[in-house]
Structures are given as C-alpha cells and as structure tokens.
Predict the 3D structure of the following.
Amino acid sequence: MVRSQKTLRDDESRNGVSSQSFVNNERAIAGGFLVTETRVIARPNEDVVFTQLDNEEGVLLHLGNQSYYSLNVTGAHIWRLIASEHSLSEILQELQTVFDVSDEQARQSVLELVKELETQQLVTLDGDPQAALG
C-alpha cells in the first residue's frame, strides 16, 4: 500500500527527497596554493527503486515504507546522476550544461532536492551538501 506521494514539477524550485553520500577531500594545486575540495556523493538507499517514465520524468518507490515520489525531468536527471555516483559538484555542472540554467539556479535545485531526498530517507549523505556546493 502506498502511503504518500511527493510530486515535483519543473516550475517548482523543490527537486528532492532524501539522500545518502560520502565525503572525500581532494587536493589540487591552483595558482601555487593548495586547494582542498569537499567532495560529497549522495548514495541511493538500497530499498529505493527508480522507474524512468516515457516523458523523461521518474518515480521513486521506497520499498521499506511503501511510499512513492514523482520526479520532474530535472529531478529524474539528478537522480540518475546520483545513482551513477556523481559528486554534487559534478551534478551541479551537468545541470548547468544540460538545462542551460545559471549556477545559482542549478545550485538551489541540487541542494533542495538532495535535502528532501535525505529527509525522505531515499539517499544518505556523509557530508554537508551546502559546504560542497558553496
């Protein structure tokens, strides 16, 4: 039995559910300075199943609590990147390219979706997404 539904629309700023991830610190030399980047990766809960719909939207089903969540085109794209173990910063860059949106729009979409995914126990984060995306 399905207990709840979360629908996310393209025109809504909310894009998410809940998230799981890990943090790696990567170091690089930039302009003679050592730069440390916090790399956060959201990992899907193993009880969550994603189904891609014909219109490129998607549905997440949490088998543990029998809840389902609708994702708009942007949310479904973000979910596929999460499932492919892309970092949040890589997802941010991908959104800017694919959807031709500003850095701020992409950042807000990723942060809101990841926080919502985490709240709904659809993913887990080991780090702070706000710190990773600045």
